[in-house]
Amino acid sequence: MTYFSIRRAEQHDAMEIAKLHVDVWRQTYRDIAPPAAYAALDEQRRYDMWSGKLSDSDYHLHILVAENEGEIVGMGAAGRPSESIFGPRAEIKHLYIHQGFKRRGIGRRILSDIASLMKDSGYNAAALSVVKGNEPAELFYRAQKGRVIGEFIDPGPIWRSQNIVYAWDDINDLIS
Ligand SMILES: CC(C)(COP(=O)(O)OP(=O)(O)OC[C@H]1O[C@@H](n2cnc3c(N)ncnc32)[C@H](O)[C@@H]1OP(=O)(O)O)[C@@H](O)C(=O)NCCC(=O)NCCS
């Protein structure tokens, strides 16, 4: 059993989150993403992105990290829906678990805690998108009883990826 704790991300976490994001993203999409996207989405770009989000006081944006022995080994973020296909549902926007900490219940815990925060922000349902070809993630969301409601193409410009949308019409189904 692996001990981990979940907490809200803070401004000083931006670089550690950026490194985790780049490492896990590149492992996950190595054979799926176009080489230009793979190269462009580097630590500096992700740092700028997370640094900006962590300084945002948007009540609807929640960013959580999982820590093991003081190191960030997982993160998740959720907020307002960004695509019309999500409807009025909260959008789970990111979920990344360090390669060495997968299958230890951390993804499921972050998903549950972030759904709970979105519920407190007024959302009754949740949804997210998975890039086509990311089969482990699809298996994970199906194991959490997600239902496919459609597809969309990311507007880009870095990667016009094809995405499958999973939804939970009762947000309580994600909360354990
Ligand atoms: C997908 C991801 C978030 C899952 O997080 P995790 O912490 O590894 O998953 P959990 O340990 O919470 O898994 C809970 C259950 O989901 C299912 N599951 C998780 N990963 C699975 C996989 N690769 N294959 C099949 N089922 C899986 C299992 O039922 C698992 O329970 P079990 O381990 O007792 O069998 C994580 O593997 C990850 O970060 N992947 C790379 C990045 C990514 O694809 N993120 C999602 C983008 S949309």
Features:
binds coenzyme A; alpha+beta; 7 strands; seven-stranded mixed beta sheet; 5 helices
DSSP strand count: 7
Number of helices: 5
Q: Would you list the SSEs in sequence order as H and E?
A: EHHHEEEHEHEE
Helix residue percentage: 25-40%
Ions and ligands: coenzyme A
The average pLDDT is: 97
Main sheet characteristics: 7 strands, mixed
Based on helices, strands and strand pairing, what is the structural class? Answer: alpha+beta
What is the overall shape? Answer: globular
Terminal residue distance? 18 Å
Oligomer: single chain
Spans of 5+ residues with little confidence (pLDDT < 50)?
A: none
Q: What is the C-alpha radius of gyration, as a whole number of Å?
A: 15 Å
Q: Strand-residue fraction?
A: 25-35%
Describe what you observe in this structure:
It is a single chain. With 176 residues, the chain is an alpha+beta fold. The protein contains five helices and seven strands, in the order βαααβββαβαββ. It has helices at residues 14-29, 35-40, 43-54, 106-120, 135-143, and strands at residues 5-8, 62-68, 71-79, 90-97, 126-131, 147-153, 162-168. A seven-stranded mixed β-sheet has the order 1-2-3-4-5-7-6, with helices on both faces. Strand 4, helix 4 (106-120) and strand 5 form a beta-alpha-beta unit. Helix 1 crosses helix 3 (43-54). The model has no long low-confidence stretch (mean pLDDT 97). Bound molecules: coenzyme A (COA). Coenzyme A is lined by residues 24, 28, 95-97, 102-108, 130, 134, 136-137, 139-140, 143.
